[in-house]
TrEMBL record:
Protein's recorded name: NACHT, LRR and PYD domains-containing protein 4
Domain of life: Eukaryota
Residue intervals of the Pyrin domain: 1-94
InterPro entries: DAPIN, DEATH-like_dom_sf, Leu-rich_rpt, LRR_dom_sf, NACHT_NTPase, NLRP_HD2, NLRP_innate_immun_reg, NOD1/2_WH
NACHT domain: residues covered: 151-355
Keywords: ATP-binding, Leucine-rich repeat, Nucleotide-binding, Repeat
Length: 987
């Protein structure tokens, strides 16, 4: 038996597995069993009152380890728990100890690499170690007492914030016996970018690949999946792990599959569902993981906080005064301070500042922006001490490094072989020099393979490539031109290109141009800037971007700090979408929006910037000034017509500033969306906007909570003569039946409001008040959306009356409410009334059956006004469609659009549908997604589509429901008929 198995893994876990009666019998047998082995008995009084933990301690106290186990094994047999005996024997074989020793050695080596940049010194600080341990302990803790801990934890953090470092320390802590000894027998670490390169593998092979010595006891390891933890690092590297169809996943851990499929099967609990998962990823993929995984627990890793950064500076700088001077400089520069959250970049910043201070240079000139800091860092590394400029060989070396970097960016390569170096003009002797500069490091587990110490270093060198020589001269044809670079960057086609575009633009700054000229002894012309402006102009007209500015472009232009260029660049775009999550985002947004003059739409969210603490606003004066710049666009940009603020938190000052600009005479906004926004301050300031701003036509407050007083103020504003709101959306605003009286008053008196959407509010019988108003002679409303408003039975009578009395209402959406057969019959009777003017009706998910279709079919043949009908997500089946198709062929039916998504249809109804397509003179659009149609059914549909009398112009189906043969058939039909569009959705 392994020497410390008992103490390391504990008898406690096995005693916990015993039921109450089994534990009582275990104690009884403990009176006699020791005597059979020639051992003294433990005093019965101590045994009798012992808890499970106490009893484990008593066994340790009175017997040697092997003796304690022998007694325990005998008792397990006698109480019928041979399974526990087998488990204990298996765990005592030494495999776990051997694997832990291997993990300790392997991950200690990985950890020691960080000492190259002196990060190791910082992390060895006791205060840091303690904080890390506390964070690790909480990873798999239940949310509340009595709850089961989550088996899936997602660790979210920005790229290079320290997620992998955290995971390495966790592996070490487990291997050293600090954490999770009773919970996890084995912990396995998989890096996604390594696994995804495997064309074929299996879970057994992945585990075996990291096992110290053969043979690998794979069956034994996987026999207790509930005691396994799989760490999956860098999830963002996977392209389709969560998008694979369920049928493509595998449950067999011996089955060979592509690496992504194996990890996807683990992630989606197809394989070893009892195992625990710890997944590390970036914020961009958090929502995808939350939506696809089974009850994930989200944990955020924030990197180094301010005290961490201060402590780290003191580790790097020998001189305390110098350390505080450098830290104060960084603390005042929000870009650099923000960058220092990431440990390796904190080292870059410290190293650069130290180099500049030793050379007696002004930090404010040499390191005031991200680009200038990286330029100083690289140029200092390549300039010999005491020299004013590098010699020619150094130029060749740096240009070769830039060529290598840009090739890696375009080919998604971050590990480079010696052959890669040679192809880019670097010789073997250059590699030790680059390692000494700490620009490169050796890759773990790969002989003669190297990587940049951080992807930002690679991105900076790649950016320099575009200013040093033509990309057309690169030996690898995969390396794109400037325009291709910008398009790839702005479309975010590569998750690694975080700062690449920013560096390209930053190097075009006048001061950086001078430094490049001096360092490389060359003259950059205006031609480069003109080329980039032309690229931006063409991108602004690119249909893929649809005239939208990506937020990353804001960062690029901010780095450039050229007001004339920024203005010309942003004039190329009409829309901008950005998300403010910190002070730097706010600073960058404010700078760029000051120079926008052609925008027509702005959409943004703002969080973590404006906070309330102890009732007092903690908004800094800097942030408020920047916020004013953002809001001022509403009055200075004459073309701006649409503003969307979503998922935001605004304090009183920020909210007041926004309202002030919205009500300004120069604000010509026509559409305003305030979605899921919480704000403090007087709400009347906001609702007065609609009294003072005559240009506003559309207002959307979806998912923003409206209290009773807010509703009153809103309705008072809507009734004001100068208010011109025509389109009002209040979905999911926590409205109640009591609020309907105020809206009813508006419907009776307001001659401008045409569209009202109050979906996803618990209105219940309050809808009857709205119906009374809709029957009023002065009501001019044209569209009403009541989706998921919890309509009760009296409401259906009221709605029927509206359909008969109201002459203006042409669109009604009642989806998501329970519509009984009797109520449907009443509704259809009203729809058939000669006075009914309704043109569009939506009854999605209202519990219509095939019998209900009989009433709907009678409406189609009686109401000549009805043009659009959507009854998707109802159980109407093939019999119901048959009734509808008969109605569609009736000469009095004028229906143009029909939605039958997810209606439990099969191919048996395709003949009826095809017949309707050939006889209906008006049907233009048909949607059938979510139904189970086979190939034969689609063939029948296509025959109907080919008929000369078929008037259909759009058919929507679902790709996932069809095989390749059926998809080819549909594509061929789409190409054959130029007047028909067949849309095959991927969802």
């Amino acid at each position: 038996m392994a020497s410390s198995f008992f103490s390391d893994f504990g008898l406690m876990w096995y005693l916990d597995e015993l039921k109450k009666e089994e534990f009582r019998r275990f104690k009884e047998l403990l009176r006699q069993e020791p005597l059979q082995l020639g051992l003294e008995r433990i005093p019965w009084a101590e045994v009798k009152r012992a808890t499970r933990e106490d009893l484990a301690n008593l066994l340790i106290k009175h017997y040697q380890e092997q003796q304690a186990w022998d007694v325990t094994y005998r008792i397990f047999h006698k109480i019928g728990r041979k399974d526990l005996h087998i488990k204990a024997k298996r765990e005592s074989t030494g495999y776990i100890r051997m694997y832990q020793a291997h993990v300790k050695k392997k991950f200690s080596n990985i950890w020691s690499r960080e000492s190259l940049t002196r990060i190791h010194d910082y992390f060895e600080q006791e205060v840091v170690i303690q904080k890390k341990r506390e964070r690790m302990e909480l990873l798999f803790e239940p949310k509340a007492t009595g709850e089961e801990p989550s088996r899936t934890v997602v660790l979210v953090g920005t790229p290079k914030i320290g997620k992998t470092t955290f995971l390495v320390k966790l592996m070490l802590a487990w291997a050293e016996g600090i954490f999770y000894q009773d919970r996890f027998l084995y912990i396995f670490y998989f890096c996604c970018w390594e696994v995804k390169r495997l064309a074929l593998t299996s879970l057994a092979e992945l585990i075996s690949g990291d096992w110290p010595n053969p043979p690998v006891p794979i069956a034994e390891i996987l026999s207790q999946p509930e005691r396994l933890l799989f760490i999956i690092d860098s999830f963002e590297e996977l392209t389709c792990a969560l998008k694979e169809p369920e049928s493509d996943l595998c449950s067999d851990w011996l089955q060979q599959q592509p690496g992504e499929v194996v990890l996807g099967s683990l992630l989606r609990k197809k394989m070893l569902p009892e195992a625990s998962l710890l997944i590390a990823t970036t914020p961009n993929y958090q929502q995808e993981l939350e939506a696809q995984l089974e009850h994930p627990e989200i944990k955020t890793i924030m990197g180094l906080n301010e005290s961490d950064r201060k402590l780290y500076f003191s580790c790097v700088f020998q001189d305390k005064k110098q350390a505080m001077e450098a830290f104060s400089f960084v603390r005042e520069n929000e870009q650099l301070f923000h960058m220092c959250q990431i440990p390796i970049l904190c080292w870059v910043v410290c190293t650069c500042l130290k180099q500049e201070m030793e050379r007696g240079r002004d930090l404010a000139l040499a390191c005031h922006r991200t680009t200038s800091l990286f330029a100083s860092f690289i140029f200092n590394m390549f300039t010999p001490k005491g020299a004013t400029r590098p010699h020619e060989q150094i130029h060749v070396q740096l240009k070769g490094l830039c060529s290598l970097a840009v090739e890696g960016m375009w080919t998604d390569t971050f590990q480079f072989s010696e052959e890669d170096f040679r192809r880019n003009g670097l010789v073997e002797s250059d590699i030790p020099a680059l390692l000494d500069m700490k620009l490169l490091q050796k890759c773990r587990g790969y002989e003669n393979s190297y990587t940049f110490i951080h992807v930002c270093i690679q991105e900076f060198c790649a950016a320099m490539f575009y200013l040093l020589k033509s990309s057309g001269n690169h030996p690898n044809p995969a390396v794109g031109c400037s325009k291709a670079l910008l398009l790839t960057y702005l479309k975010r086609e590569n998750v690694h290109w975080i700062l690449g575009g920013c560096f390209v633009f930053g190097l075009l700054n006048a001061e950086e141009e001078k430094r490049l000229d001096a360092f490389f002894d060359l003259q950059l012309s205006l031609e480069v800037k003109q080329q980039f402006h032309q690229c931006l102009k063409s991108l602004g007209e690119c249909e893929h971007l649809e005239g939208e500015v990506d937020f990353l472009l804001f960062y690029c232009l901010f780095e450039m700090q050229d007001k004339v260029f920024v203005t010309k660049a942003l004039d190329c775009f009409q829309e901008v979408h950005f998300s403010v999550t910190d002070n730097v985002d706010l600073m960058v947004s404010a700078y760029c929006l000051k120079h926008c003059s052609g925008l027509r739409k702005i959409s943004f969210s703002v969080r973590n910037v404006f906070k309330e603490e102890n009732g007092d606003s903690s908004t800094s004066s800097y942030n408020l000034v920047r916020w004013h710049y953002i809001c001022s666009v509403l009055t200075t940009n004459v073309h701006l017509r649409e503003l969307q603020v979503h998922n935001s938190v605004l304090d009183e000052s920020a909210f007041g500033a926004l309202c002030k600009e919205l009500r300004h005479p120069n604000c010509h906004l026509q559409k305003l969306e305030i979605n899921n926004v919480s704000f403090s301050g007087e709400s009347w300031l906001f609702f007065e906007v609609f009294i003072h701003n005559p240009y506003l036509k559309c207002l959307d407050l979806s998912s923003t909570r409206l209290y009773r007083n807010d509703v009153r103020l809103l309705c008072e504003a809507l009734n004001y003569p100068l208010c011109n709101i025509e389109d009002l959306t209040l979905a999911n605003c926590l409205l109640s039946a009591g609020d309907c009286e105020a809206f009813a008053s508006v419907l009776k008196s307001n001659k401008k409001l045409k569209y009202l959407n109050v979906a996803h509010n618990y209105l219940d019988q309050g809808v009857s008040l709205l119906c009374d108003a809709l029957c009023h002679l002065d009501c001019v409303l044209e569209a009403l959306v009541l989706v998921y408003c919890y309509l009760s039975e009296p409401c259906w009578d009221s709605l029927c009356e509206v359909l008969v009395c109201n002459r203006s209402l042409i669109h009604l959406d009642l989806g998501g409410n329970v519509l009984k057969d009797d109520d449907l019959e009443l509704l259809c009777a009203a729809l058939k009334h000669p006075n009914c003017c309704l043109q569009s009706l939506c009854l999605v998910k209202v519990s219509i059956t095939d019998e209900g279709c009989r009433d709907i079919a009678s409406v189609l043949t009686s109401n000549p006004n009805l043009r659009n009908l959507d009854i998707g997500n109802n159980d109407i089946q093939d019999e119901g469609v048959k009734l509808l198709c008969e109605a569609l062929t009736h000469p009095n039916c004028h229906l143009e659009n029909l939605g039958l998504d997810s209606c439990q249809l099969t191919s048996a109804c395709c003949e009826d549908l095809a017949s309707a397509l050939t006889q209906s003179k008006t049907l233009r659009r048909l949607s059938l997604t979510g139904n189970t149609l086979d190939h034969d059914g689609v063939v029948v549909l296509c025959e109907g589509l080919r008929h000369t009398e078929c008037a259909l112009r759009m058919l929507r189906l679902q790709k996932a429901k069809f095989g390749e043969e059926t998809q080819r058939l549909l594509m061929a039909e789409d190409e054959r008929n130029p007047s028909l569009t067949i849309i095959i959705d991927n969802y």
